[in-house]
Structure formats: C-alpha cells, structure tokens
Amino acid sequence: MRWWGWGDPGHPPALGQGMLRLLRDTVGTAQKPRPPVALARVKLAPAALPDGVRGELQALLGADGVREDHAERVAHAAGRGYPDLVRLRSGEPQGAPDAVVYPRTPAELRELLALCCKRSLAVVPFGGGTSVVGGVEPLKGEHAAVVALDMRHLADPVRIDGVSRIATVGAGMRAPALERRLMAHHLTLGHYPQSFEYVSLGGCAASGGAGQASTGYGRFAKLVVGMRATAPTGELAIAPHPASAAGPELGALLLGSEGTLAVIHELSLRVRAAPREQRYEGVFFADFTAGVDALRALAQDRTAPAVARLSDESETRIALAQADAAAGEREAEHAGWWANRSAALQARARNRAGRVYLRARGYGGGCLAIFGFEGEPAEVEHDHKRALETVRRHGGLALGSAPGEAWRRQRFAAPYLRDELLTHGVLVETLETATSWSNLLQLHRGVSTAIEDALRAQGTPGIVMCHVSHLYETGASLYFTLLARQREGAEIEQWRAVKRAAGEAIANGGGTISHHHGVGRDHRPWMAHEHGERGIDALRALKRELDPAGIMNPGKLLP
Amino acid sequence: MRWWGWGDPGHPPALGQGMLRLLRDTVGTAQKPRPPVALARVKLAPAALPDGVRGELQALLGADGVREDHAERVAHAAGRGYPDLVRLRSGEPQGAPDAVVYPRTPAELRELLALCCKRSLAVVPFGGGTSVVGGVEPLKGEHAAVVALDMRHLADPVRIDGVSRIATVGAGMRAPALERRLMAHHLTLGHYPQSFEYVSLGGCAASGGAGQASTGYGRFAKLVVGMRATAPTGELAIAPHPASAAGPELGALLLGSEGTLAVIHELSLRVRAAPREQRYEGVFFADFTAGVDALRALAQDRTAPAVARLSDESETRIALAQADAAAGEREAEHAGWWANRSAALQARARNRAGRVYLRARGYGGGCLAIFGFEGEPAEVEHDHKRALETVRRHGGLALGSAPGEAWRRQRFAAPYLRDELLTHGVLVETLETATSWSNLLQLHRGVSTAIEDALRAQGTPGIVMCHVSHLYETGASLYFTLLARQREGAEIEQWRAVKRAAGEAIANGGGTISHHHGVGRDHRPWMAHEHGERGIDALRALKRELDPAGIMNPGKLLP
C-alpha cells in the first residue's frame, strides 16, 4: 500500500480531465497540484523504545519481528481517513509507533502483551491499516512508548469445515486471500467492504464492519460464529456454536471493541456456496422517496438483493454530469470513484441517448439504484422477478445490466480517486449512519443540510450527496459523500468543523454515529450519547477487567 | 397458572389410557397415582421481610404492590422445571420469596432496586415464571431476604411503528397479548416457544429463548432491536438502530443475562407481516442421517421453512406406537404431548393404512419431520416446491398436511401432559443443545447414550428420544426428551444424576449447554466450560459494575 494514500503504487491515474473541470466549476480546486512530500521528508519523532525493551521484544519475536525503521514506522503511523491522509501527505503525521512488532503465533502474541504490560507499552493492533476513523492512530496515552502490533503473520491456519460451512482463519488474513482459498471449495464469505483489497479479517471483526453486499450476506458480525482473542489477562474463546442460550453472547463484546479489550487472533466465519450467477442491474426512480419506499418493501418482504443501493437526487445528478464528461473524453474506464458512488453507470451504459429516454419518461431529476442478485441461477431468476415487481409497483424503471456491471468493476476504486482529489486540493470525505425506516428521510435531510451549512460556514460551499445501502427489515444505512475546496493551511480545522456538524446532526436526529466505519478516534465524542453513561461504565468495567494496565489501543472507542 | 404445574386449571386431562398402558409396559409407572398436595399443605418458611422494610416497600408500591400471602408466595416459589414440579407437588419447594413486589412504572422499578440495595433484599425478576432451568428460584444468597419482582404491570406502553416494523412494549407483557395487539395491524412477532401461552417478553429476552418457528422468524435475540433495562446503578438504553458499528453491541449483554445484571423493562421488537398462508406438512425420511442431511441442505440453501423439525428413530417409533393406542381409543384429541414431540401425527393422519404404506415403501424404521411454511401464498407455494425438491433428493416422502396440522393444534400442549405423567410416577424431562452440522450426529449419539446409561445406572431404564429443530446455516439444535419410572423418594437425586450425565456429554461432545432454555440454576456447572475462565471474569466484572451489591438474581447464571 502507498504510504501516503491508497493501494497499489502502480495503479493508473483515475481522475479524468472532465471530472476535474466539473469540480473546478462547482466546488473549486487548488491553483496547482499538491502532491505528497517524499517519504524521507516525513517528520517523525525519534523512536522512543528503551534499549532494554528492544532487546526483550527481539528475544521474543526475533530481530525480524521488531522494526523501527522510518518506512515501517510511517506505514503504521495512520489509517486511511481524510485527516490521516492530509497529515501524511504533508509529511506531518500526528505521531508514529516507536516500533512495529510482528508476532507469529498466538503464544507469541500472549507473551508480547504480557511484556507490553510490564514495560508500559501501548499496543495498537494493526491489520490492513484501512481504518477511516483513526482506529490505528499510534497514541501512547500514559505509557512509556507505543508499538503497532502488525497481525500479518497471524494469518494461519485456514480450516474449512465444508459440512458446517465454517472457515476458521488467523485474524491477520486479508479478505482477498480468504476468498481465494474458499474459491477452491466453491464457497464464499461474501464480505466486500470498499477496503476489500487490503482489509484484514480481524480488523473487520474488531471494527464492526459491513460489506457492500451485506444486505444479502450479512454484516461482518453476522458472519462471525466463533473467535479467539488474547487480552492482557488471558485468552477469550468463543465457541462456534450455531446459537446458544448459555448466558450473554460474549463474542458481541469483542466485535466492535476495536482492539481496546483484546486482540482477536482467530475467527470462525460462516461461509456460503459461491454464487453461480451474479446479476447486477440499474434501476431509476422518480425521486428519493419512491426509491426508499421500494427498498423498504424489498427488505421487509425479504426479497432484497444481495446488493441494493439507492443514490439520492444529488448523488445521481452529479454522477450523470460527471459521466457526461467522462463519456466525452473516453475516460470511463478510470472514472471509478463516481461509479462507486453508485452512479455514472447509467450514463456509461446508455450515454446521452439513454438519458434523453429517461427524461422523456419523466425521470429527469430522479434517483439511480444498483441491485445485485447473487445465487443459483433459478433463484436469481425468481428473486429478480419478484424484486422487479416491487420496483415497478413503486414507479421504478429497470435500466438493464450495464449500470450494474459498471458498478461492480469499479466497486473498490473510490479510494484511489480520493488520493487524486487531494492532490487537486479537494476535501473529500464520507460518513455514514443508520436509522429506522420511519426516520430515514428526515435524517437524510437533516444531515445533508448540516454538512452543507458547515461547509458554507467554512467559506467552502460544497456538494453533499448520499446513498442508501445495507438494508434491514427495520431500517437502513445512509452513506454521505461531501466534496469542497480545501481550506489550504486549515484542512484539519475545516474537516473537524464539518465532521462535528454531521455528527451532531446524526446523533440528534436519531441515527447511530456509525453503521460500519467504527468509532476509533473520530467518533468518540458521540459514544456517551450512543450508549448512555451506564453503557460506557459497563464498557469501562470490561476494559478494566481484560486490560487492567490500559495498554490496549488507548485513546480509541471509549470517551 | 396452576400453582403445582402448567396452565389453565380448567384444562381437560391429556393422558389417554393407551398412552398410560404403553408407559406401564415400557418404563413403568407408579402403583397408584401421586397427585399434588393441597395448596394449604405446601410448607413455606415464614416470610422474613423485616417490618420496616415492608413499610418502605408499601410506601413505594402501595399496599397492593407488596404481597406476602401463602398463595402468592407459592406461585412465585419456583419455575416449571422437573425438579421444581416434583418439589411443588410434594409441598416442599426449596424456598419461597419473602414477598412478591409489583412495580407499575420504570420509575418505581428504579426506586425499588435502590431500596433493595439499601435493605439487602435479593431480587428475582419474575415474568411468566416458566423457566425450566431454575431461573426464578427464590435464592437470597448473602442477603437479608428475597423478593420476587413480578413484572406483570410493566406491560405498557405498546407503540407500533408500522413503517419500520418495530413494536415497543413493556417487558412484562405476555407473548399472546402482543400477538393479539399485532393482529389488528396484520403483523406478527412470530415467537412461539412451547411456553407461549404464559411467557413474558422480558423473560424471553433475559433467557435467550427461541420459538418453535425460529428457523423462519429468528431466535428471540434476533427479534430485539432495542431495550431499556434498569440495573441497581441506573438505566441502560439500547437504541433501536437497525445496525451499528459504534462499539460492542451492549444489548447482547442483557440478552441472556437472566436478571443477574438488570431488569429489562422495555423491548423494541422487530415484527413482520402476518403470514396470509400457513402450510404445515409431514415428511418421512428413511433414517435420521438422511433427514439431517435434508435439513442441512434446506438451511444452507436458505430455503428452510419457518418450522422444520425432525424426530429421530426413537421419537418416531414411540410416537407411532402411542398413536396406535390413541387411535384405537379415540383419544387422539388429547394426545397432545406426543403430538408435540413431533410425531403421532403421521399415524393420526393415515392410521394403520398409512403405516402399512410407509412400511411397504421401506420407511418402516424411519424418521418423521414436520415442516411449516408461512408467508404470502405465492411465496409459500414457491418455497414449498423448492423444499420438497430437496426432501425428495434426500429420499424423503411427503405425507401431506394432516400430520402438520395435528402438530400445530398440539404445539403448546406438552406441559399439560407432563403434569399427568408426574401424577403417574413418570420422570419426564427435556434438555437441549446445539452444535455444528458436522458434529450433529455424533453429539446426538453421545448424549442419547449418556442419558440411557445414566437411567440404567439409576435402576430405571428409560426411553430417550430427540428431534432436530431450530436450523442455522452452520448447525442446528438437538432437543432430547427422556421418560423413565420415578425413583420414589429419590426423584431429585435420580434427575440430578441424569442431568449431570447429559450435561457432561453435551459439554464434552462440543455442544452448547443450552440452545434456548437458558442457564438459571441447573446449567451453572457448565458455564466455565462454555465461556472459559476469562469469559466468566468478564461477566463478573459487568456484574460488579451494574450490580455492586449483588442483589440481582443471586445463584443464577454465574458459576
């Protein structure tokens, strides 16, 4: 992964001239590109690992298992949230781990935590490093130093119980590696967050994530049937029973605990037969309300496809404009970020002719949805037929497969585009929530308005757009994207003001402060609102029990 | 509810002469009937509520809100497990609450818990009183006295959000009352435990239960989207977000906590459209293995009906024999207990002719299953067609609707029959577990054998039978029923020996100690095995935080 941004260093540029022009004409861009500094120019405080401690760590993990070099410290200095990237690119991360440690076995992990307790080393569990909420920020709290605990070597064993459809893996395994292993057995986990290409499975469990196909396969917590985790005080083992009434589900404490209680090192995951057919299609609704009603009907009839996402008017409008530009310049192949924001597709599919057709049918200002059906061919056929009946009942217009296929091709591309937007001085941030169906439209309006107002107050009026995805019988998630010109020299303050306004609008509007990004550093201010004082007390009591020295990921999750 | 047993005092006798003869010829029955003693002869220790405390309780709850009379104390002296009933019927319960208290509002509940802390009163939350694992046994632990906290008046408000399909109710509400309220909105909760007619919704949440249709509607924990609970240190509120990544799911701590941490007083529950069609049918499999394979295929294809239960050969054989007797004597209408053990039905449907037919087709020693499809007519048609394709692929024979309808009529009748069996000196107990599909047959054999051996060792060889129900993608539950002659005068010792043997076989065989009955008093010995020492430590830490005085349901759940 690029130290200053996302993904493969060899990835081709994703931002086309048409898109750039569109941004220049709307929110504005920097006068000249603002590339990241050179790696050598990233400023880090000297590594503060005491000599004696270094020797003890090396005795435990081997010389290779303890790294203090500049590149490795930078690579573990931050996650991939907007403020992380702003700071990294400017060469001024908020801090860096004093060392990066790489245990290879659960036994080493156990001894490592004991040593960290003894020597007062804060521990930041580090999987794929893809947190967008500051979940891996190397904060040392009250401790002598801080180490990033890189889980990459704890990726074995993989045991696949094909009869029970349970895959047991080391938590350091990356999501694509598991899918490759499962493919040989015609199985799939079905967990595809936007960070899919880099995310570790342990990170998914610890952060409470949800993949793009969670409506069909379930959010990550639903995929976890068993776990092993090591806390400073010992190991917790959650047996992979299909269900149990033997007291509270302790696994629920580890899911979403973000490394503040224990390090999850093994996961037993429910897997499914790999779908023999995948049918992704576009649907157009006259307006957001009609689309939301259709999604709700699908969810409550339990006929929703594996992927179901509906862009609001703003996201649809911008996407179509951008798609025009992209189509004009034949940049479509790399216009991925917009595609992933669940639009562009329709235009890529039918171009201007299709748009004229839609306008003629009265869908000029409407909303685009992407539906993805997965399963056995006969079932896909049946589910598709039923879902389209519901869509039609809500005035929806089926656009065929091209928009859906385009979305699939670009589903993991957004983070690449974000890097280029930063180069052009554009603030780009995403944030998300979930609420009940009866509150969804009101929360959508409230949060959109709050972000727009906050951007205006910063002197950088912007574009706010949103899609509904992740459907449940009782409600759904809302995923907001905002674009504005960066306030150069005040990027973090600008971001913080917007983030605060959005968070307040979510909390006061009855949403959860996060549906799948997690809490980390950025959402801590709303945790007491989310859980109440007694709820936080309960979490603190657990923390005291499992991590009495307070070494586990200090400064995250708990307010 | 009858103070000495189950249900409506006016319920007609359920045990036919044929069935009784069958038992006499197999396991043996008492020489003469052993009815319960008269209520007035039930021995209770004098109520030990200090005068000052009585006054304080009455000041808070009113004179009606504090009861110390014999009948009310007896009614709250035990749940409805086998040892509870043996003791009640003999007039010698292990104890009784010193008072029964009835708060009417959450505010009264809060003040009541504060008063109980101050005066060292142990608190046993009491919903329907249907626990079969000793969950409401009035143990006072180290405290001065013990009160049963009857939740019946905390049954309001009912708020139905039809858009989000969320019903919010007071936790003291009984399950049938909610279904009646929902019916007016064409909605259903779909939670039908065998205790349905008496169970409180708060009790379902606190004990981690699952209804007979959980394969379709989900176990109770899946139905709970929000909660309010009062702990001695304050209120916990779990907001009804459809999903959240804002830290660990604290609701999971309350679900299954069995009143040891807090009293759940309000629930927000996911409801569904009431099914417009219900199709219940019987299916016959050549053997248990074939039936289990079919159930697994249904679960993993996600085509399992709402109710899917498969009797093993033993349960099927006994049921057919009993059905013969019942049919001969025209007792079928009240042979409910057997019906509910998921058999009898096939014989009631087709009588001897049908059996001859089955034998002729090679199903002589086979296994009966009941499938219940619920939903919109078109979907029931589709699901039924798909499920029967799977059944046929596994050699199953469809028996039509009569067995299914018979099962439905008798689905809540078993506890009535149990009372009559006790009158005739028959030990009748049920216990249950769940495990992965790959371990299911082995665990079934292991537990069956352990119970048979334990009964033989008691000098009372018995009948052990089992059914699979509650299907999941990764595994299923096993529900065992055992019948034997009671060892008169040593009923509890006999039961304890069998229970211990079964529990050890479950724990050592990789099952959970309970799939849906809960832990209470009876399963505590296996909690450390289930959760490990660190898991128990975590639960204890939570307990210390929420209930520092340890007044909440002492002697339950935690080992």
Give an account of the 3D structure.
Two copies of one chain form a homodimer. By secondary structure, the first copy, chain A, is of the alpha+beta class. Chain A folds into four domains: 34-150, Uridine Diphospho-n-acetylenolpyruvylglucosamine Reductase, domain 2, CATH 3.30.43.10; 159-273, Uridine Diphospho-n-acetylenolpyruvylglucosamine Reductase, domain 3 (2-Layer Sandwich), CATH 3.30.465.10; 277-416, 3-Layer(aba) Sandwich (Vanillyl-alcohol Oxidase, Chain A, domain 3), CATH 3.40.462.40; 425-522, GMP Synthetase, Chain A, domain 3 (2-Layer Sandwich), CATH 3.30.300.330. Chain A contains 20 helices and 18 strands. The longest helix of chain A has 21 residues, at 437-457. The model of chain A is unreliable at 330-353 (pLDDT under 50). Chains A and B meet through strand 9, helix 10, strand 11, helix 11 and strand 16 of A and strand 9, helix 10, strand 11, strand 16 and helix 18 of B.
